[in-house]
Design brief:
- The chain has 296 residues and is α/β, with parallel strands linked by helices.
- The protein has a single domain, classed as 3-Layer(aba) Sandwich (Aminopeptidase), CATH 3.40.630.10.
- It contains eight helices and eleven strands.
- The chain has helices spanning 46-58, 67-79, 125-143, 171-174, 177-186, 214-226, 246-249, 278-294, and strands at residues 6-7, 10-11, 14-15, 19-20, 84-87, 95-101, 104-113, 152-159, 190-196, 240-241, 255-258.
- The strands form three sheets. The protein has a six-stranded mixed β-sheet with strand order 5-6-8-7-9-11, sandwiched between helices. Strands 1-4-10 form a three-stranded antiparallel β-sheet, with no helix packed on it. A two-stranded antiparallel ribbon has the order 2-3.
- Helix 6 packs across helix 8.
- It starts with 5 loop residues before the first strand and ends with a helix.
Amino acid sequence: MALVGALCAVVAGVALMDLTGRDSGGDEPRERAPAAAAARTGRFDSARAWAELRRQVELGPRPAGSGALRGLARRLREELPRGRFERVPGHPGLRNVVGRLRGSRPAIVVAAHYDTKKLPGFVGANDGAAGTAAVVELARGLARLDRPPDAPELRFVLFDGEEATDDRRAFERTGLRGSKAYAARHADELQAVILLDFVAAQRLEILREASSDEDLWRRLRTAARAVGAAAAFPEGRSATITDDHTPFLDRGVPAIDLIQWPYACWHRQCDDLGAVSERSLDMTGETVFELVRTLR
């Protein structure tokens, strides 16, 4: 792993997500080649996932502890298999939303955060809603799959409180509240964590986040090739990003972060429906479905 040291950049006057070891490249996105036309297998229902993404965006801002987020949490709990809440100790009112498909331990976690940054008018289409919508639809699709008797337990976790409350401090000091709590309680029960963060940008091209487990990422790229989405997950790596996968890596659990970085609309009002696409959401969903289906 690279030397640990927070590099804080500034985008549009807002402190950038905590990065370690590399320059993010700033506000403007790099020029990228077009991604694959679409994923091919049809096991991930992109229309349903897209409808879920839209429903969240239509709620408006959904910061941790808000009435909008608590109402969303109640609905998301009903969407997940065996859905329930799990409180976040030390943070009254915060709760992760957790679902489960039975299987053998150690389990595989597919996760996202469902809160948005507390900013005026910020609706987080890619930064919150996309990953959440993908996890919900993956849970639905995988629940219908005829899985072998020795298949691993699958957990679907929507983290509360990912966004930091104080940008003057290191990101992990006031952010990652839900993932830190879940990792502290469950890390020894897990074999892998697959985190979906910025996964539906119009021009989808997600490089390996530098701290993400190399073997698990290699399997992800194999899955992407199998479903026709290889161009969305090209070779190479991006910066090291402190995100909801980090508390699991810190506890020795292999974890990967699907996050397209840099992202020009990060924590800006332009992170709306115009910044994301159903096609990109489909490529992510089909790839992760294939990855989870083939992990043992």
